[in-house]
UniProtKB/TrEMBL annotation:
Keyword check for Membrane: yes
Stored Pfam families: V-set
Name the record gives this protein: Uncharacterized protein LOC114850235
Signal peptide location: none
Transmembrane regions: 140-164
Keyword Membrane: yes
Limits of the Immunoglobulin domain: 15-118
Name of encoding gene: LOC114850235
Keywords: Membrane, Transmembrane, Transmembrane helix
SMART domains: IG
C-alpha cells in the first residue's frame, strides 16, 4: 500500500469525487475489481501515509476494523459486483482521499474516491471571517483613496487662494502706481502753468494792462 501512494496521488484527479454536507451520512462506492480477494478500505493522510479503516476476506465475509475505527462510525457492505463503505456522520476532518484495495496473488488494484465535506460550522466561520477581512481591506483601501483625494483638493484650493491673493496684490500695486503717475502729471501741469503765467501776462499790450489796472482799482473803491 505504501509503495502505491504515489500512484494514488497522481490518479486522484481522475477519481470519483463525492460532496456531502457536514453531519450527514455518506456512502463511498467501489466496483469489485477482483473476486476471492482480501479487500481493504483505507484513507490517505497528509498525502504520505495510508491509514487502514477496515478489511475483509471475501471468501469468509467477516469484517475487521483497524485501530481507531469501529462499526459505530463505519459500515461495510458488499454484493456480487459492488462494495460500499458508509460513514454514518461525517465531519470536516473526514474530508480526504479514500481508496478501496483489492489484493490478489501478490497484486493490488485500487478504486479511489475523493470525499469533500462541505457546509460545516467551521467552514462557515472561516468563510465569514474571510469575507469580513475582505470587507475590512476594501474599507481601508477606500479610506486611503479618500484621504489622498482630500489632501490633494486641499493643496489645490490653497494654491488657488494664494495665487488669487498675489494677483489681487499685484493689481492693487499697479492701480496705485497709475494713480501716482496721474497725480504727478497733474502737479507737473500745475507747475508749468504757474511758471508760464507771468510771461503770458507780460506779453500783453500796455493798453490792456492799463485797463486791467483801472478796472481793479475801481472795484476796490
Amino acid at each position: 500500500v505504501i509503495c502505491s501512494i504515489s500512484w494514488i496521488s497522481v490518479s486522484v484527479a481522475e477519481s470519483q469525487i463525492v460532496n456531502v454536507q457536514s453531519g450527514q451520512s455518506v456512502t463511498l462506492w467501489s466496483p469489485i475489481l477482483t473476486k476471492n480477494t482480501v479487500m481493504t478500505w483505507s484513507r490517505l493522510i497528509n498525502k504520505t501515509t495510508a491509514s487502514c479503516i477496515c478489511f475483509t476476506a471475501r471468501s469468509k465475509g467477516n469484517v475487521q476494523f483497524c485501530d481507531g475505527f469501529n462499526n459505530l462510525t463505519f459500515e461495510l457492505k458488499d454484493n456480487t459486483s459492488e462494495v460500499f463503505l458508509t460513514i454514518k456522520k461525517v465531519h470536516l476532518s473526514d474530508s480526504g482521499i479514500y481508496f478501496c484495495e483489492f489484493f490478489n496473488s501478490g497484486k493490488s488494484t485500487y478504486h479511489v474516491t475523493h470525499l469533500n465535506v462541505e457546509g460545516s460550522e467551521e467552514t462557515q466561520n472561516t468563510k465569514s471571517k474571510t469575507e469580513c477581512n475582505k470587507t475590512d481591506e476594501t474599507t481601508y483601501v477606500m479610506s486611503l483613496i479618500l484621504g489622498g483625494l482630500t489632501v490633494f483638493l486641499l493643496v489645490v484650493v490653497t494654491g488657488l487662494v494664494v495665487s488669487l491673493g498675489k494677483r489681487q496684490a499685484a493689481s492693487g500695486e499697479k492701480q496705485d502706481a497709475q494713480l501716482h503717475q496721474n497725480v504727478d502729471s497733474d502737479n507737473l501741469k500745475a507747475a508749468a502753468l504757474s511758471v508760464f503765467s507771468p510771461a503770458v501776462r507780460s506779453r500783453r499790450p500796455a493798453s490792456q494792462r492799463q485797463v486791467e489796472t483801472h478796472v481793479t482799482y475801481a472795484a476796490s473803491r
